[in-house]
Write a structure and sequence with these properties.
The chain has 208 residues and is mainly α. Helix 5 crosses helix 7 and helix 6 runs antiparallel to helix 7.
Length: 208
């Protein structure tokens, strides 16, 4: 008999992973212009869609980018992105304020990377150091202070792991597919990174 509950839960697990994969694809596209490939993350996505013969999707991305100002946003968009930035930084702080997360790349980390990419694409084209990056760095400093008040290396370690989670978000789209294929299905864990990270922690506990 089909267990519809597990089937739906498993689909939700895969859907969340696919959303992360798509977001990471955008993040990679947003980084490539820093190395001379393309003009922006959104135009790179549109070009990829056109090359894959997904013409309607490519045209929609281009139109959306133009509608959002193509790097010259109106005040309302800046306000919205500013609110998003504040909320994401609060989520990032909440994820790590108690110590290392059980997931190497939690949602808060990929959201922080995403808001930076959106800021680069829509608010300050071509500028890596922007308000979003400053806010994220300040949040990492606050994480280090909150965890251990700078009394030892623990706070810095947690902040560094949070930074690693943000950086990994940019390459997740490249390394996740083989991990999905190699890993076993477990709907109680979000993705391959969490399974691997928890497995490492389990081994460490047994060794202790």
């Amino acid at each position: 008999m089909i267990d519809w509950g597990n089937l739906i839960t498993g689909f939700g697990f895969r859907f969340r992973s696919l959303v992360k994969l798509a977001t990471s694809g955008y993040l990679l596209a947003a980084v490539l212009p820093r190395f001379g490939f393309g003009e922006s993350g959104l135009t790179n996505l549109a070009n990829v869609a056109h090359r894959m013969r997904l013409l309607a999707l490519g045209d929609w991305i281009e139109n959306a980018y133009q509608l959002l100002g193509s790097g010259s946003p109106n005040g309302a968009l800046v306000i919205v992105l500013g609110i998003w930035l504040a909320l994401i930084c609060m989520a990032l702080l909440g994820e790590y304020k108690e110590g290392v997360s059980s997931n190497l790349m939690p949602n808060a980390a990929i959201a922080a990377a995403c808001i930076w990419a959106l800021w680069v694409d829509l608010v300050s084209p071509g500028t890596i150091v922007n308000l979003a990056m400053v806010a994220i760095v300040v949040t990492l400093i606050v994480i280090a202070w909150t965890v251990d008040h700078f009394r030892s290396a623990e706070g810095f370690t947690v902040a560094f792991i949070a930074l690693i989670g943000i950086v990994v978000s940019f390459v997740y789209v490249v390394i996740a597919p083989p991990l999905w294929l190699a890993g076993s299905d477990n709907v109680n864990q979000v993705d391959a990174f969490e399974r691997g990270f928890n497995a490492g922690r389990s081994v460490s506990v047994r060794d202790d």
